[in-house]
Amino acid sequence: MSILLRTPSAGELAAITEEVGEWHTDSTPFQLHPGDIGWFGWRGDEVTAAALRTWWRDGRLVAAGLLDGPGLLRLAVAPAAMTDPYVADAVASDIVHEDGRALPAGEADVEAPSGATLRDALVTRGWTSGDEWTHLRRDLSRPITVPTDLRIEAVDARNAHLRTDVHRAAFVSEAFTDERWRSVAATPAYRSARCLVGLVGLVGEVPAAAITVWSAGEGRPGIIEPMGVNPAQRGHGHGVAITLAGAAALREMGCSSARVGTPSTNTAAVATYVAAGFEAWATVDDLRRA
Fold first, then answer.
1. Check: CATH 3.60.21.10 for 138-288?
2. Closest by alpha carbon to 247, among 145, 130, 119, 161?
3. What is the 8-class DSSP label of residue 275?
4. Per-residue model confidence as pLDDT tens digits over 58-75
5. What residue spans define the domains of the chain?
6. Could you give the CA distance from residue 91 to residue 4 in angstroms, rounded to a whole number?
7. For residues 76 and 91, is the Cβ–Cβ distance under 8 A?
8. Is the pLDDT of residue 99 over 90?
9. Which residue range or ranges hold the N-acetyltransferase domain (predicted)?
10. Which residues contact 207 (CB under 8 A, 6 or more apart)?
11. Rounded-to-integer distance, Cα 31 and Cα 266, Å
12. What is the three-state SS of 116-173?
């Protein structure tokens, strides 16, 4: 039963995204989510497919990774393979292989799910702890009250410029244009997603905060990827309000819970999510190759 590593084609994105989504339940650890693949999709389907690494056994997908930049591989493992030593050894061997088949040579980080045997396989190959991430979640079984200080709008082609304005300001980056938002909205994952913008001001429309939330299917955990507040509008609770709006949207889509991961050093983000009713349920280190 050999494990085959393969980079998919753009035509396979929808099927792989759906399969990865089926691996997510409230009992599985935080790992690569369809929303991560969808958000990466602002680069286009061809680039997204080229950044995916998929491992197959007997025609079944057992692990998937997204090369999120040249030195970061974000992974998901099928629940049935999470503690399978054969899968762990095969995936780890491909990751560390000198030909760069899964990850380019040199300094790198791997984001692997907590409890996966793959983590042990990388540690035995010399990988050490890297950045620590805090994983938070909120149960969605009960209705969510969204503050009214923000006027929440669903984002579409008509008002996408408001959403991209917030993103560029919040993340100090000019990369996320209206065209790139349209690329995200065209991804297979976005069929189960919602983008929201929060507006303030009595006159005109001042975009203060924005969020994109992604479902993995009804009864499964959804994620926030990403949430941001315009620096000029911080300090007014808008981050909490837009997060609550995003969680309410996931509940409307039938998600069982909302999840988010943020660097543990980003204490302001952790505090925002906690204020929005999320609970910190795990801290997990990336694995790093110096």
1. no
2. 145
3. H
4. 999 999 999 998 899 999
5. 3-130, 138-288
6. 9
7. no
8. no
9. 150-290
10. 162, 163, 165, 166, 197, 198, 199, 230
11. 19
12. CHHHHHHHCCCCEEEEEEEEEEEECCCCCCCCCCCEEEECCCCCHHHHHHHHHHHCCC
Encoded amino acid at 77, one letter? V
Q: Do domains 3-130 and 138-288 have the same CATH topology?
A: yes
CA 20-22-28 angle, to 5 degrees, is 90
Name beta bridge partners: 229: 209
Place of tokens 């760069």: 100
> Residue length, the chain?
290
CATH of domain 3-130: 3.40.630
Residue with tokens 């056994």: 57
Q: How does pLDDT run across 145-181, given as a tens digit for each residue?
A: 999 989 999 999 999 999 999 999 999 999 999 999 9
**272-282 residue pLDDT tens:** 999 999 999 99
CA distances from 197 to 113, 121, 186, 288 (A): 31, 42, 19, 36
147: DSSP letter: P
Tokens describing residue 93:
């061997």
**β-pair partners for 136:** 260, 280
